Each structure stands twice: as structure tokens, then as C-alpha cells.
Amino acid sequence: LYLVIIVCGISSEAFIRGSLIETGDASATVSNILASGGLFRLGFLADSIMLLSDVAIAILFYILLKPVSKNLALTAAAFRLTQAAVLSVNLLNYYAVMLLLNNESYSSALEGDQLHTLVMLFLDLHSHGYDLGLLFFGISSLVLGYLVIKARYFPAVLGYGLIAAAVVYLAGSYIRFLFPEYAPAFSAMYVIPLVAELAFCLWLLVIGVRKS
């Protein structure tokens, strides 16, 4: 499940939306989406699979870490499930682009520039919605990291990695909303969550849980 989340999340954001959305160029973005409608829909599919997996993994992590602290494990699960709920609703902003471009009753009622601007607005809302969800995910990762450190199931370094990832998620999201001019400079910091979560995922896949 963890691997599915990572692959779907990176694929939809970096390879699908990254290849279609031209920042600051609404006309080119609309042209890309119209020319690659199947790819744009694939982004919706990848995100939905990621979120369904996130709900399942929240429950499994709760079961796995409940012996360490039932209350903290429940807290981590609650924040992760809230993140999944926020991102699920946020997918409507993504789907709104398809409705605008593929439904003639909408597209014919708007002039070209108006339609293109509205498409970019929904894409921007979808992007910001991700950062809103990461606020909840950051708290979940913070608690999860603490539980991983306290549990003897895993090396403590994996827990510290998750805590570092949580700090990046929280800082990055608040910077995006409160100080957007600094967001581009901060974007390089997201390599920390990528390394931390990938390391934890690979440990679960290859080594697993220490039974003792």
C-alpha cells in the first residue's frame, strides 16, 4: 500500500500534471489537456487509488502501532484519514476542469480567455488543496514518527526521518498559504520527505516488522 501511494502520488503530480500544466500560460495548458484528455483522466485515477490506499494504510498503521500507544496511534490515524478526506474533496477541483472543457453547456457560455482563466483557477485550487491536506498529513507523520521510534519494530532512524518529513510538510504548506513568494525556494526541501518515506516503505517491503 505504501508503495502504491508513493508511485501514484509522484506519477500524478510530476509526470501527468507536470507535463500538462504550463505555469502562467493558460492557453497552452488548456491545449495540452484537450490534446491529452486520457492522460489528464489518468491523473484522477492515480489520485483516487492513492487516497483509497491511504485510508487502508491508516487503519493498518493503527493496528500495528496500537501496542505502543493506543491514543497516539488513533491520533495518527485520525489525522491521516482527515487528510484523505480533504484530498478526496479536493479532487472535485481537478474534475471541474474536465467538466468545463468537455461539457458544451459550460464551454459555449464562456469566452476563450474566461474559460482558460477558470481552468487555471480550478487547477490552482487543486494544487493548494494538496497543501491543505498536507497540514493534516504532517501532524499524522509527526505522531507516526514518534511511535516508530518508541516501537522496537523498526530502526529509530526511520522514525526520525518521518519526523523530519513532517516538519517539511507543515512548513511547506504554511509557507505556500502565508508566504507564497518563498514557496519556490522551499520546494527543494521536499526531497527530505521523499527519501524518508521511501526508506520506510522499502524497509516494510524488504525487512518487515521485527517480531521479537
Can you characterise this structure?
With 212 residues, the chain is mainly alpha-helical. The chain is built from nine helices and no strands. Helix 4 packs antiparallel against helix 6.
**Could you spell the SSE succession in H and E letters?**
HHHHHHHHH
Tell me the quaternary state.
single chain
Question: Distance between termini?
Answer: 24 Å
Report the C-alpha radius of gyration, rounded: 19 Å
Quick structural gist:
This protein has helices at residues 2-20, 26-35, 37-65, 70-102, 104-107, 112-150, 156-178, 183-186, 191-206.
Write the layout of secondary structure elements.
Elements: H1 2-20, H2 26-35, H3 37-65, H4 70-102, H5 104-107, H6 112-150, H7 156-178, H8 183-186, H9 191-206
Helix pairs in contact: 1-3, 2-6, 3-4, 4-6, 6-7, 7-9
